[in-house]
Structure prediction request, 212 residues.
Amino acid sequence: MEPITIALAKGRLADKTIELLSMCGVDCSPLKVPTRKLVLYDADKKYKFIFVKPGDVPTYIERGAADLGVAGKDTLLESDRDIYEVADLRFGACRMCVAGYPQQRDVITNSNLRVATKYEHIAKGYYDRQGISVDIIKLNGSVELGPVVGLSDVIVDIVESGKTLEANGLVVLEEICEITARLVVNKVSLKIKYKEIKPLIDRIVAAVEDTK
Prediction:
């Protein structure tokens, strides 16, 4: 029998996912030993774990290189991949927001609004739904700098504590959506490996419910 391949997003999501899988009876002991290996197996080789960048999880799932994985809702919205989202895991909670200087509240509906963001697809979709024409400025880091140096009017970004915004004189102007980690599955895998994957999904959902 082929192992179930699980894509783990490097960083905090992986740590939380490993904790959840362990609660569900998955042997994650090899994942707790420091290593540079990107592919690991449990002792019985029932599960194959691959470590990928968080933004790449949907790609590995859609292409069938992994059967299931965990990704933030922001990653799923931005990538827009053809995969099943089967459960809200309720960790990694934050918000996708429009932020800027307080006085920008009066101009956020203006045409040709300059929006700095890592999330081009999410930002464009949000403003398209409102019929607002925007100039999307793609940045890969420190998007808060956009309004500070006059590069953009506002930003679209994830907000957790809001401390970085506050430190730069910015505030949340609008909330686009809430973000949490989601369990995602390859559509073909769910059919071909249904007897193996479905019980695991059920155990994960039950574990999440037990931690409420």
Observations:
- The radius of gyration is 19 Å.
- The mean pLDDT is 94.
- Residues 194-210 form the longest helix (17 residues).
- The CA atoms of residues 121 and 149 lie 24 Å apart.
